[in-house]
Amino acid sequence: MSDSDLRLVVGLGNPGPGYAANRHNVGQMVVDELANRMRSSFKTHKANAVVAEGRIVPGGPRFVLAKPNTYMNVSGGPVNGLLKFYGIAPENLIVVHDELDIPFDTLKLKQGGGHGGHNGLRDIIAATGSADFVRVRVGIGRPPGRQQAADFVLQNFSAAEREVLPILVGEAADAVELIAGAGLTAAQLKVHTG
Q1: Which of 76, 125, 128, 160 has its CA at 20 to 30 Å from residue 12's CA atom?
Q2: Does residue 76 fall inside a structural domain?
Q3: 65-91 pLDDT, tens per residue?
Q4: Three-state SS across the chain?
Q5: CATH number at residue 10
Q6: The whole model's pTM is what?
Q7: Residues belonging to the active site
């Protein structure tokens, strides 16, 4: 099933409706937006995830969009299972996740590096044995005052943030498309300087 233009795009988050609108689930929101663009629905996969497959533009890159059915901190197993099932190399993996160290409404793109304390990334690196995947880091900002980061990420976006959120999610989805179509460097130039 190996295909050089195939990209696995994983949206990190926690499963179930209780978590769906949390800051921690912004990665899954982006993958949902990509599935809408593909006009594809998610189906259960044996790797303990739901996946949607297809192309966003005719002749463009082929995507496997995935949302692990596990909690964020144990995302690695499903991601590794999907890479193996589809025969996709880690460098063709794009992980979309929330990022505390980036202001809300800001995107940063990078390939490789450490996990920066993000437990979802830590587990993916441990399970796949590689840190060489692309990350679409969606800024959610730091918690206010003395609030613990763990509590902050499990809260829903504020009313003011929710007004901007569809634009942010759309821009992150655009970034995924650009990475797959034009490459990471071109995407970074557009996202980081735009």
Answers
A1: 160
A2: yes
A3: 999 999 999 999 999 999 999 999 999
A4: CCCCCEEEEEECCCCCCCCCCEHHHHHHHHHHHHHHHHCCCCEEECCCEEEEEEECCCCCCEEEEEEECCCHHHCHHHHHHHHHHHCCCHHHEEEEEEECCCCCCCEEEEECCCCCCCHHHHHHHHHHCCCCCEEEEEECCCCCCCCCHHHHHCCECCHHHHHHHHHHHHHHHHHHHHHHHHCHHHHHHHHHHC
A5: 3.40.50.1470
A6: 0.96
A7: 24
